[in-house]
Amino acid sequence: MTNRHLLDELNDRSREVFRRVVEAYLLTGEPVGSRTLTREMSAKVSPATIRNVMQDLESLGLLDAPHISAGRRPTQTGLRLFVDGLMEVDPVAPTDREMIEQTLGNGAPDVGALLDRVGGALSTMTQGASLVLTPKHEAPIRHIEFVSLAHDRALVVLVFSDGQVENRVFTPPPGQTPSSMREAGNFLNSRAEGRTLSELRAQMGRDIKERRQEIDTLAAELIEQGFATWESSDSNARLIVRGRANLLAEEAADLDRVRELFDDLERKRDIAQFLELTEGGEGVRVFIGSENKLFSLSGSSLVVSPYMNSDRKIIGAVGVIGPTRLNYGRIVPIVDYTAQLVGRILSDPKG
């Protein structure tokens, strides 16, 4: 049964009981009892009636009871139903709006520094951990060079037409030699001029398939390895994580899993996955608990929104991760407003 159909199955009293249980749980983090709800219902209802309604909601998989004598709390299915069908989204509070605008309103930005400040502001406002995926550098390439550092380490040096230089240490394919590195560099430079990194990567994929016999095998592997490194490294797309201590404090009962989550993020393993989460269309997306593999281990929720350039192309994302009892009604508009403002500023830094 879909969430829409499940919601349609609830009568007005069941909806109100369900909504009040979820809202109270998101506020306190504690299971909610029938006597508490009796005082808050819009119509006079006995505790026994409310208990019966809560049992029905539990049988539908929307609530559960952590202990036999305890109140009820929403399940992951219940939270998803609430977010999709019953949640009231608040407008961005004036203090939050002011903080976001002050963070972003400092003239033509150094993109890295600006997005680092955005991460700090989101973490402070939401008391969660913030995730910011910075844009890829898409200036045309002027020169590429591979430098051997040791048998198991090499350096990629990338010079862009705007003067920026990026480099990254990576593990080369086994058996590489100085000559194969020179050959790889020469081959790339003969095709790099005027192309961005993404364009060159696409062209190289075609060239390698068409000319495999003409390219030394080790050089081809080096080219492929080098581009894989650029595509996944923080020189090309960097994930900024701020406020991890907030989540560690919230999830004290499961610190090892939360630490594992942030260790993975800080090693940048899941940047591509993080961006993929945002590509289901414009606007904010909410992932609860095990709904995505990136955060399922920690039992956390993610509120994430892409930001776009002037061509309406997704170039990065901002998000907040926290316990499943996030204040979604407040955090969703904060993330949405921040993403829109970031996209606007990066598309037109002068205003």
TrEMBL record:
One of its GO terms (molecular function) is DNA binding. It comes from the Bacteria. InterPro entries: GAF-like_dom_sf, HrcA, HrcA_C, WH-like_DNA-bd_sf, WH_DNA-bd_sf, WHTH_HrcA_DNA-bd, WHTH_transcript_rep_HrcA_IDD. Keywords: Repressor, Stress response, Transcription, Transcription regulation. Residues 10-76 form the Winged helix-turn-helix transcription repressor HrcA DNA-binding domain. Gene3D superfamilies: 3.30.450.40, Heat-inducible transcription repressor hrca homolog, domain 3, Winged helix-like DNA-binding domain superfamily/Winged helix DNA-binding domain. Coiled coil: none annotated. Residues 114-332 form the Heat-inducible transcription repressor HrcA C-terminal domain. GO terms for biological process: negative regulation of DNA-templated transcription. NCBIfam families: hrcA. Belongs to the HrcA family. Negative regulator of class I heat shock genes (grpE-dnaK-dnaJ and groELS operons). Prevents heat-shock induction of these operons. This is Heat-inducible transcription repressor HrcA.
